[in-house]
Amino acid sequence: MPSLLLPSPTLLDQSFPRTNEELKVISVSLSSMLELVYEGECGLLSTEALRDFVERFDWDRTGPYPLLMDIHRFLSQMLLYPSDYVFEVDVSGASGGMLHPTPTACSPRGLTGDWSIEAGKVLELHLRHSGLQDAHIGVACARAFAGEAKDTYASQVPAFPLVGPGDIGSLSDAYEWNVPSDIHQKSISFAEVRKNCFAIGATEVLLPKGSSHYMVKFARRPWPLDCNTDPVPERFLGQLEDITGYPLPVIKTALIYGALPSKRPKISSLRSTSQ
Q1: pLDDT tens, residue by residue, 24-60
Q2: What is the rounded CA–CA span in Å between residue 90 and residue 47?
Q3: Which residues contact residue 175 at a Cβ distance below 8 angstroms, ignoring those fewer than 6 apart?
Q4: Which of 40, 188, 206, 208 is the most buried (most CB within 10 A)?
Q5: pTM to 2 decimals?
Q6: Strands across the sheet with 43-46, in order?
Q7: Count of CB atoms within 10 A of residue 222's CB?
Q8: Strands 86-89 and 175-177
Q9: pLDDT of 237-247, one tens digit each?
């Protein structure tokens, strides 16, 4: 699963007049975000209250500002229709005691204060699971997604990283592997590896020729498996991390149970809107 982008208030809040130049930046930025989302590079995050920003759109203002129609169409695509790429988090379990800072360029008018409250609740839920050094949510900077210099926050308090298209890779996955809590204590037998290595991407197990070494074939490179070394030492299993791309706890779980473990959201109340 991908990391998640929380649209900034500049992108979400069209409840007050903006200049044509501002609307141009917002339109380009939303289009750029949607492209990344449809390519599977990231997901979009919202809450029930933030979705209301779009539903409160003032249709009477679109006449003099045709770009507003494009912006509303982008926002509707992003937040109002069920999608595998759009996620909503239930923030009812947050205390609401944190306010998230806003980017410097955000106008204090409109619904910016409401955004700060909602984003603060999401931040509180994130911090219950992991620190911001392992952030899986970033605030999408309108300027950066429009190809301009990235903005900064108006105040230096705990906040999700402000990101542009080039920063997506610095965010972690919004989901984590659901592995047994004692998996680090479990041993893996030769028989389990031979039988279940296909669950982590093996394509073939070649029988030994004049030795005790089987050869397990993967797309990246083969891996030797000695039938006389049972259980398989953890240092040997660790070699599979580079070959398969999976972390060791996931590899061990798959080799024991014959299938990759499921994934669960790091914030327990996070759900895809398609569910």
Answers
A1: 888 888 889 888 888 889 998 888 877 777 777 665 6
A2: 6
A3: 1, 263, 264, 265, 266
A4: 188
A5: 0.82
A6: 162-163, 137-140, 4-7, 43-46, 86-89, 270-272
A7: 15
A8: unpaired
A9: 999 999 999 99
